[in-house]
Amino acid sequence: MWKLTAAKYSKRALILNVGRKTRGAGEKSTRPRRNSKYTVTRVLPESTLLFSTADDTRLLQDLFRNYNKVIRPVKNYKDQVHVVVGMQLIQLINVDEVNQIVETNLRLKQQWTDYNLQWKPEDYGGIKQVRVPSLDIWLPDLVLYNNADGDFAVVHMTKLLVQHTGKVVWMPPVIFKSYCEIIVSHFPFDEQNCSMKLGTWTYDGSKVTIKQESVHQDMSNFMENGEWVMKEYRGWTHWVNYTCCPGKPYLDITYHFVMQRLPLYFIVNVIIPCLLFSFLTGLVFYLPTDSGEKMTLSISVLLSLTVFLLVIVELIPSTSTDVPLIGKYMLFTMIFVIMAIIITVAVINIHHRSPSTHTMQPWVRKLFIETIPGMMFFSTMKRPSKERQDKRIMGEGLDISEISGNQEPPGQVYHSAITRNADVRAAIEGIKYIAEHMKGDQESSNAAEEWKFVAMVLDHILLGFFSLVCVIGTIAVFAGRLIELNMNK
After folding, report:
1. Phi and psi dihedrals of 292, rounded to 5?
2. Does the keyword Membrane apply (predicted)?
């Protein structure tokens, strides 16, 4: 069996004496007896904590005994504090096109040397670095110059890391809301170039200098956004002279990030519905006029489009500097529908014309009844000639031989004796009147059918024309920008 005994080794350490129990008189050992007892000394983890806690306490007390966080950490007053800045973009939270604000989540890494926070590790139990609250030491007063809404500086005062050489590393999380001029001319196939300008607020370049940790910023922890994709993220350092402080240039680092919008949401929810409204408008000309539903369908499409535009208008950036592509397309669709309604009214008017109010011009009959139908591969309107109509009507009403009962050769019908009878002549005149009336009705019916045929031809022409305009208009609005984006890839 093993026996454990604890003995105090020093003020800060404990040791364990691990001993072997002495065997009884009746027990025999199979191994040679060298030592009846031996001791193993082991430092427990608690002992390390005791060492570390005491050394840390003493180190922090020595470091901050005469420390003043208001004074710049330099050996000489004329020396500069060199701050290395790195901005790690974590997330693109929101892009507000209406208010032109970009909200980002990032880690603002800052490194500098504080000569008041140096020590020798061997004097403090080998401690080479400590973590202290950021409010207890001097900090560079970096602020976001183009702040739009929120905090200009870091508000989450996390702890920072201080090394024995005096190097300070601080990497607090920050949520910035910066102003960005949103150019909406190519919306929703747009790219935006936004920036964040960081610089010291009170220290000019002779007191504090800032430089980038790297020209190409760290994107290793960036979380992809469902609406935007980050194409480029770089920073540039500038020396700027302000009117308030002539002769004292201030340094700033301006981070530019180019982001491209993912247009799938707007294609599915805006562009395709507008395209369908346009095609539905074209179908108005395919609907027969006699159905009486042309205007009903046209007005229904217009009302549906109006309600749809009122719903999606909040998705479009409200700016008067330029009209976005999607706004142009919506305007094109609205004009398209209104023009279709106006033309539909004209076609319905042509369909219901009569010879008593409108006389068809010969060129209209030649163009829309004889020429265009053949070009559009459907049959022309068949109408009996005037001579055939006269013969048919006279044949129906003036067979005098049947009335008299005498079969006479053709050409002598009007010279028979029966035609000289007054009653017969009166009957013949009545038959002539009826024949002329029937002839006029037939002419009116044929003229009305001709106007209906012209309206039908116009419907077919307008159906093809509006379908072509819908396709060409859609391509004309978006094709140029899509080609430009593909060339820039």
Report:
1. 75, 15
2. yes
Please, how many CA atoms are within 13 Å of residue 214, restricted to the half-sphere of its CB? 8
Backbone φ and ψ of 335, nearest 5°? -65, -40
The span from the CA of 148 to the CA of 180, in Å, is 9
Other C-beta atoms closer than 10 Å to the C-beta of 24 total 6
**Can you give the pLDDT at residue 39?**
41
Q: Is the pTM of the predicted complex or chain greater than 0.85? A: no
State the DSSP code for 119.
-
DSSP one-letter code for 174: E
Q: Are 418 and 399 in contact (CB under 8 A)?
A: no
* Residues 174, 108: Cα–Cα separation, whole Å: 7
Round to whole Å and give the CA distance between 345 and 337: 13
Q: Which residue from 99, 193, 469, 481 is spatially nearest to 326, judged by alpha carbons?
A: 481
Do 45 and 11 contact (CB within 8 A), yes or no?
Answer: no
177, with CB counted inside 10 A (0-12, 13-18, 19+), is buried
On whether the CB atoms of residues 344 and 298 are closer than 8 A, the answer is: yes
DSSP annotation of 214: -
> How big is the chain by its Cα radius of gyration, in Å?
49
Cβ neighbours around 31 below 10 Å, total:
5
| Better pLDDT: 216 or 40 | 216
287: its two tokens = 């609907």
Cα separation of the two ends of the chain: 77
